[in-house]
Amino acid sequence: MPAAPELISPRSARVSAARRLAKRNFRGKDRLFLAEGPQAVREAAGHADTLVELFATVEAAERYADIVGEARAVGARVHLADEAVIADISTTVTPQGLVGICRFLDTPFEEILKSRPKLVAVLAHVRDPGNAGTVLRCADAAGAEAVVLTDASVDLYNPKAVRASVGSLFHLPVAVGVPVEEAVAGLKGAGVRIVAADGAGQDDLDDELDKGTMGGPTAWVFGNEAWGLPEETRGLADAVVRVPIHGKAESLNLATAAAVCLYASARAQRAFGGCRTVTPS
After folding, report:
1. pLDDT of 81 over the 50 cut
2. 161 and 154 in contact (C-beta within 8 Å)?
3. What local confidence, expressed as pLDDT, does residue 12 receive?
4. Alpha-carbon span 56 to 37, nearest angstrom
5. Is 163 exposed, middle or buried (0-12, 13-18, 19+ CB in 10 A)?
6. Distance in angstroms (rounded) separating the CA atoms of residues 152 and 126
7. Residue 80 to residues 10, 69, 86, 90, 218: CA-CA distances in angstroms?
8. Hey, which residues does 196 pair with through a beta bridge?
9. CB neighbours of 278 closer than 8 A, spacing ≥ 6?
10. Are 163 and 40 in contact (CB under 8 A)?
11. At 194, which helix (H) or strand (E)?
12. Which residues of 132-155 are buried (b: 16+ CB within 10 A; e: fewer)?
């Protein structure tokens, strides 16, 4: 006989505590955030000491029994909940039946610098959570060692940003709330070249690749999709680079441009003479 949900009222204390994490001030106060759907919950369960609680409908608990088992194995409290409860906690239109509560997992900026990263994405003035999460996903896919969100950027733990990262939030170190001047100075001190991505940049990405300037440790600085990077932020960079538009498109959106830039660096760094070149022993 199928198990019955133990949480059936959206007014219960546990549900209320989870629901309030949709708001930034409560996330910051509790240092907890929501991870929705099987992919995010699975990643959270696999990241040490991260998943605290899991709410699951009976159907989802049966369908994703392996994820529920992983959650229990790492010590998370698992609650079988009515679909109305999941809908009340979830921030999506069509919930997938699993909502996890996770501890914050940002990394101190100093630790990122100590690791001597070769490829970093810096989100300097990114306000859209979907863009932030997607750039994080692109950085992860390109093999970046870290992402830095400045104090002028969106909250990393916004549910939309978490969803857009598609689990990449749990894969690589992310520093948050770092003033852009501090981020640039720290990365330069760690031997990283600062490249600002801007549609009005004086340098062309293709030309930079042809000149061989992209093979060393690099931090790409990305700004707001609507208005780009402020002049004072561009002035901090070693180079301001634009992605060339070979067709008739007016521009690229932020996440697409970030993917192009990060993969350009990743390829250059792995080419002959790049900072990731593997030499035979």
Report:
1. yes
2. yes
3. 83
4. 10
5. buried
6. 7
7. 13, 13, 10, 15, 46
8. 221, 240
9. none
10. yes
11. strand 193-197
12. bbbbbbbbbebbbbbbbbbebbbb
Q: Check: CB of residue 193 under 8 Å from CB of residue 234.
A: no
E strand or H helix that includes residue 54: strand 51-56
> Which amino acid is residue 275, in one-letter code?
C
* Paired tokens of 52: 């605290």
Compute the distance between CA of residue 178 and CA of residue 108 in angstroms, rounded to an integer.
9
How is residue 100 written in tokens? 């996890």
* Alpha carbon distances (Å) from 82 to 23, 72, 183: 22, 19, 45
Here the tokens at position 241 are 């680079």
Mean pLDDT of all residues in 165-192 = 96
Q: How far apart are CA 23 and CA 143, in angstroms?
A: 31
- What pTM was computed for the model? 0.91
Instruction: Return the amino acid letter for 257.
Output: A
Task: Report the 10 Å Cβ neighbour count for 164.
Answer: 21
Q: How many CB atoms lie within 10 A of CB 187?
A: 25
What does the pLDDT look like over 117-155, one tens digit per residue?
999 999 998 999 999 999 999 999 999 999 999 998 999
Q: How far is CA 144 from CA 9, 69, 141, 254, in A?
A: 43, 31, 8, 17
Q: What is the DSSP letter of 6?
A: S
Q: Which of 30, 12, 9 is nearest to 21 (CA)?
A: 30
